[in-house]
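For the sake of transparency, this paper describes our internal protein records without simplification. An entry from our holdings is shown next, in its original layout:
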Amino acid sequence: MRILLPSIVDPRQHRGGAGTATRGLLALLGRPPLAAEVDVVVPSSPLPHRLRQLIALTRASFSAWPSKALFLDSWRFRRAIARMVAMRRYDLVLINGGDLLWMLPQLPSGVPKVLYAHNIERDLFAAQLEGLPALLRRGRGRLRRDLDKLATYELHGMRAIGRVLFISTADEARIREEAGGVQTLHLPPVFDYEPRGRVRRRRLGATPALGFLANFTWWPNRAALRWLLQHVLPSLTRDLRVHLFGAGSAGVESSDPRVVVHGFVDDIAEVFARCDVMLCPIVSGAGVNVKFAEALYNGVPVLATPFAARGLPVSAGAGIALADGAEEWVRFLDGEGLERLAAEEVPAKTVRAFAPATHAPAVHAFLRAAVAEARDAGHDCPEVRWARSP
């Protein structure tokens, strides 16, 4: 099968959850018997990120599209897609991210399309609006109108595409209720490497080492870190060490000696080898916490907020502790629960829940059904004609 994958992120470079999930998706698509050939096309712009956001918000005031769609809409991106369609005949277009649903009517009508939804975009945007600083609240009226536009755009787009892979079980259930007739399948984060296996600490009786692995340039992770540093660590009475890993962590400043900053680490096995328990203190955002899933995939126990566990096929149990609110986190970390969690094994069933091999048969069948349906309908594949953004 030959697949064109327009993507919100470049999986070769992106270090956040979306990039990790996309790399796992590509690994799954490449597995036999599907063994798909996938061409990835990503948006590119010479303009700085903040300037592009400002331009998109300005354009949204005069457009039928929301700013999140306009942010990725450019003639450079359109030309790249058009070139790929002109050079090769594709069996399927797999759109990687709901921000790109605008391109649906501009793709060849005879080629079936599927969306891989990393989150419900309107939920993510709504969470961003709630976290705006006071100085920016005067602009909330315009942003609320943009949010309403996004909700309509996203729901109509999912209905139009008809087939959606959801990374979150919660998002899947919600869209099945809101957009009747959409065919859906749950595909949690899967990973493009064999699990490393847990490395046990050598110093028996030592206080468990805690790790927080995240892309700290992404605002929900920054909010989670602030919550941890301001509401949890100051109330702890024991001498713990919290190790911060990931993009943007090198710039974290904390006067608390219990916080150890490592920056970005190329080999994720080094991260998990240093830590007895991984922390996922996520308190805002949307979609799923990919690093939560990745820690479990590598057999490392996790302490998380219930919000961090939403949409994943897991629940509290062996290797997973959920604590809601700062007081519960403090009681857990100051008590015996931390030692018990550090000593637990993540069940093999939980590890397999995030392996490409587990989900490949269902996903392959889902994509093949989309192709077969288009062929049975006898669709042709006319040349793509690009419309201007409204």
Summary: Confidence is low (pLDDT under 50) at residues 380-388. The chain has two domains: 2-192+356-376, 210-352. Residues 69 and 99 are 5 Å apart (CA to CA). The two ends are 33 Å apart (CA to CA).
